[in-house]
Design goal:
The complex is a heterodimer of chains A (403) and B (229).
Chain A lengths: L2 H14 L1 H37 L5 E6 L9 H5 L8 H7 L5 E16 L2 E10 L3 H4 L4 E4 L13 E4 L1 H8 L8 E4 L2 E9 L13 E5 H8 L6 E6 L5 H15 L6 E5 H44 L1 H9 L4 H37 L9 H28 L2 H5 L4
Parallel strand pairs in A: 3-8, 5-7
Antiparallel strand pairs in A: 1-9, 1-10, 2-3, 2-6, 2-9, 4-7, 5-8, 6-7
Helix pairs in contact in A: 1-11, 2-9, 2-11, 2-12, 9-12, 11-12
Chain B lengths: L1 E12 L2 E13 L4 E5 L6 H8 L7 E6 L2 E2 L5 H11 E4 L11 H12 L3 H14 L15 H13 L5 E5 L7 H16 L3 E5 L3 H6 L2 E6 L2 E7 L6
């Protein structure tokens, strides 16, 4: 038989048994679509977290006061010793390492901000002008904190877009004096609406020079020190250097924690990748179920069409041709089902992207290929048995509609 | 062209062996018109199926066109069946989802013939069977006689040497039955070897040679002059 005829024969017989064909297509379609959807969700979550961390900055080393280890009950806990403050001098000391390209001490607190008669609670972040580039932030208007000595406090601030909208409304904010607590700060810049950033929403912060923040919040201690290193390779050196330096400065006490965003990112990445594979696998089970359904329906189809198979034999179809016909019917069914599943799955992930624009829910290529492959394989595998049964049918009794 | 030598066909029913064909020796020459008659279970259908290679002898030698059929493998058998043998069944056995033309075309499709060539042959067959207007009808839109004519067209589309008909008029009324018989006899006059299994004495009498079977044996084999010519 020529391939076009095999195809049209299979197509005709699929069309001839519409109800069962539609049911099988539905089963195949739903399972392929669920593989695509679930992996798209997993992959979207992975990308989301990746982007979050990328927006933190690249090659970032973060120094956090306090030691995060389970030391148990030791001398320190008994004596109630708290970790030493992380200070601007500590940050200054860390800057000395040659692999450090940018460094930003960070101070955070909440104060009341007001302009004319409008008031609201805001998060104040004290830092230096390097923070902007280090965090890959963008300005919508004006300029960022001036490049000046860290100790010099100056009454300037950069505000987030939402703060600007809520306090200044339609009026120009640049150049205005914003009151923070007891002090007044001139607005010199407005942050672009940066969508995502773990921890703080850039739209809702006010950034002022770090020493101004120290006096405003009345604390010399820093919340974080962010360090950007020259390259990924030099991160470890900087970590060691940071731990050493702080230990020396803090009288031999290693009372800070140094993390890299890479380490955190890697962990998240691993977890989410595993999650994606997991849900993909679970969805693949539904493909196998669809396969079993195909087997069942093909078995019914073969016994329904016993006389037809007997006839084909009488007309000169060899066992191999019968096998070929049944298998190509199953193959066609799986392919069509997979195609519909692709349409449904892609439409579904498009829907997810519409509903959750933050989540780049695109089904990964491997999931598409794998689901197509699994669909074809299950289609073929599970119809092998019915096809073999059909090929083995005895022509004489088959023609009598027998068994 | 057909030669059966000491053919036995045994079936196992429970712990009993049934001899469906018991030492059959038969020779049929090209162009013969043969009827096989006998009571139910006499083995006439088994004989027909065996000649059509749908069934296999337990022992004995079957030669078709000088070829020993008993030694063929499954693939060769299917090919030989496709090319040299046509079947017409009592139940027509048309595929309901295919049109008349598509049903007729089926043996050529199985043989792997190109669509252009097929089209010509099918057109001719439709013309010969007077079915042109019914070409694109599905079997359920055809009358019984038309269905059987479609089946005959299908059986002869590969231009086989032998046409095997198992009760071809069994499901038809008198007139349609006569119609079908006429069609078969016309084909026979053009040279095809026609073997008809039937209960119908009228049909049996029309054939040039009739076999009578009882209990798997041929009990009479007589040639007679056709009544009408």
């Amino acid at each position: 038989m020529i391939p076009a005829d095999v195809f049209s024969y299979s197509w005709q017989s699929l069309k001839g048994y519409r109800a069962r064909t539609l049911l099988m297509l539905l089963a195949m379609c739903i399972s392929v679509a669920s593989v695509l959807l679930l992996t798209a969700l997993g992959e979207g979550a992975r990308r989301y977290v990746n982007n979050e961390f990328a927006s933190l900055g690249t090659n970032l080393v973060i120094v956090i006061p306090g030691r995060s280890e389970t030391a148990g009950v030791g001398l320190n806990t008994m004596m109630g010793v708290t970790p030493r403050d992380l200070t601007l001098d500590d940050a200054r000391a860390l800057r000395r390492h040659h692999a450090v390209t940018r460094i930003a001490p960070l101070n955070i607190g909440a104060v009341e901000a007001s302009w004319q008669n409008r008031k609201r609670e805001v998060t104040v972040m004290g830092s230096t002008h390097e923070l902007l580039d280090l965090r890959h932030w963008k300005l919508a208007a004006g300029q960022f904190l001036p490049q000046a000595d860290w100790d010099r406090s100056s009454p300037v601030c950069v505000i987030g877009k939402k703060i600007r909208d809520e306090l200044f409304g339609a009026q120009a904010a640049l150049g205005q004096w914003l009151r923070l607590g007891e002090n007044r700060y001139r607005v010199i810049g407005i942050m672009a609406s940066e969508g995502r950033s773990i921890g703080v929403d850039v739209q809702e912060i006010v950034i002022i020079p770090v020493s101004s923040a120290q006096s405003l919040l009345n604390t010399p201690s820093l919340f974080r020190i962010l360090i950007e290193t020259k390259s990924r390779e030099s991160m470890q050196k900087v970590i060691d250097f940071a731990l050493d330096t702080i230990k020396q400065r803090h009288y031999g006490e290693e009372d800070v924690t140094v993390i890299t965003q890479d380490a955190v990112l890697q962990t998240f990445d691993n977890i989410l990748a595993a999650l994606t594979y997991g849900v993909g696998g679970i969805a693949a089970i539904s493909l196998a179920v669809a396969g079993i359904l195909i087997m069942n329906v093909m078995l019914v189809a073969v016994s329904q069409r016993t006389t037809e198979i007997g006839l084909l034999k009488a007309l000169g179809a060899s066992r191999r041709k019968i096998l070929l016909l049944i298998l190509s019917e199953a193959l066609l069914l799986s392919l069509l089902g997979a195609m519909l599943g692709f349409i449904l799955g892609l439409a579904g992930s498009w829907g997810i992207r519409l509903a959750l624009p933050e989540l780049e829910a695109y089904p990964p290529l491997w999931a598409m290929l794998a689901s197509l492959l699994v669909a074809i394989m299950t289609g073929l595998l599970f119809s092998l048995m019915p096809a073999a049964r059909a090929a083995k049918l005895d022509a004489v009794s088959a023609l009598q509609g027998g068994h | 062209m057909i030669k059966l030598e000491q053919i036995h066909r045994d079936f196992q029913v429970g712990d009993q062996t049934v001899h469906a064909l018991d030492d059959i020796n038969l020779e049929i020459t090209q162009g013969e018109y043969l009827s096989v008659m006998g009571p139910s279970g006499s083995g006439k259908s088994t004989l027909l199926n065996l000649i059509g290679m749908l069934d296999h002898a337990t022992s004995g030698i079957y030669t078709l066109n000088g070829q020993n059929v008993t030694q063929m493998d499954e693939h060769q058998e299917a090919e030989t069946r496709n090319r040299h043998i046509g079947f017409v069944f009592q139940a027509f056995h048309l595929i309901p989802r295919l049109t008349a033309a598509e049903n007729i075309e089926l043996p050529l499709v199985l043989a792997g013939m190109s669509p252009a060539e097929r089209y010509q042959r099918v057109e001719q067959a439709l013309k010969a069977m007077n079915l042109i207007e019914r070409a694109h009808h599905k079997p359920d839109q055809l009358s019984g006689g038309q269905r059987q004519r479609v089946a005959i067209a299908r059986a002869t589309i590969t231009e086989p040497a032998v046409l095997l008909a198992d009760e071809p008029t069994g499901n038809l009324d008198q007139k349609s039955g006569q119609d079908v018989i006429d069609t078969l006899e016309t084909l026979n006059k053009k040279g095809i070897t026609l073997i008809v299994v039937t209960h119908d004495h009228h049909l049996g009498d029309r054939s040039h040679r009739s076999l009578k079977m009882v209990d798997g044996r041929i009990v009479s084999d007589r040639s007679h002059v056709q009544a009408e010519t």
